Structure formats: structure tokens, C-alpha cells
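user: Please supply your own:

assistant:
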Amino acid sequence: MISTGSVVDYAEKVRQLVKPERYEHILRVAELAAQIATANGLDQEKAYLAAILHDAARDLSAERLQQLAPPENDIERQNPLALHGRAGRRLAQEWGIEDEEVLEAIEGHVYGVGPEHKIGMALYIADVSEPGREVNHEIREMALAGQLEEAYQKAVICKVRYLQKKGIEPHPRTWAAYQALRPKTDEP
């Protein structure tokens, strides 16, 4: 059980690290992640906490991101922003978060998660479909209707196709998440 006081404390730590617009996004993602968790029989407190922490490192400098999460491949070296999930996980650990589901969700919101990480799926969906983004309404509605896996599959496929359309190579972990989902679909 996560106490309300601790979530408020974590939210304040995050608020101090990010721009006001980012913090508003984080609050919308947290609310939606909790709703998605509830609709799918998951722990809404874990989903909310993971969402509050998911973008804690998003506005840090490239140097700080690389200190918290040293690049593991060329994509991360060329685009340090790709490190913000792993860096956010590290911050959460430094702040005392030990729950592996929460930590995996924070890290995985950038790349995607394996099919066994339901809290991570809820966060990933909430992040790409929160109302302030004004996109992916159908993905959000599927998740809120109890179709978590289907919504997640659609979200990952959309992300990979978007990156490919822009000529951006997907991160190896994103590609792995996509490949793990492919047997469930006829889509290329």
C-alpha cells in the first residue's frame, strides 16, 4: 500500500524538476493511468505513482540524463532524451522507490514493456493518449473499456509506424516490444 502523503511528496519532487507544462501533462497521465488500472483490475495506486514519476527526468540536461543513465547504444548517444525513462527510474530509486512494477513502468514508458508488465502497459497507454495530447483517443477508450492488451498493442504499433514514417530508427527496446506483440496481429 502506498500512502497518500508519500505520493504528494514524490509529486512535489517531480514538480521541482520539470517545466509547468510538463507537470500538467504528468498530472493528466497519472489520473488516466489510475483510471486505466481500475478498468483493468490493476493496482491504481501503483499506476498513479508510476505516472507521477514517469517524466521526472524529462527536462534534465543531456549531461545529467547521461550521468543517471549512461547510454547503451547509438540511439541513446545521439538522442539523450531517449534516456529519460531509465534516468527517471534511477531518480525514483534514489527517492526510495523499491517496487519493481513501478520502476519497470517508469523505465518502460519510453521504450515499451514486455507483455507481463500490466502497470507498465497502463502507463504507456496513458502517456501516449492523455487528453492534453489530443491524439490516440481510440487507444485511450479501448484501455478504459478493459481492453488493456489490445490498446497497448495498438499504441506500440502506432509508435513504431510513426517513427518509421519520420525516418527515425526505433529504439531496440521499442522494437523488441513491437516484435513481442506481432504474433498477436497480422499487421507488419
In short: The chain has a mean pLDDT of 93. The radius of gyration is 15 Å. Residues 57 and 84 are 5 Å apart (CA to CA). Residues 4-184 form a domain with the Hypothetical protein af1432 fold (CATH 1.10.3210.10).
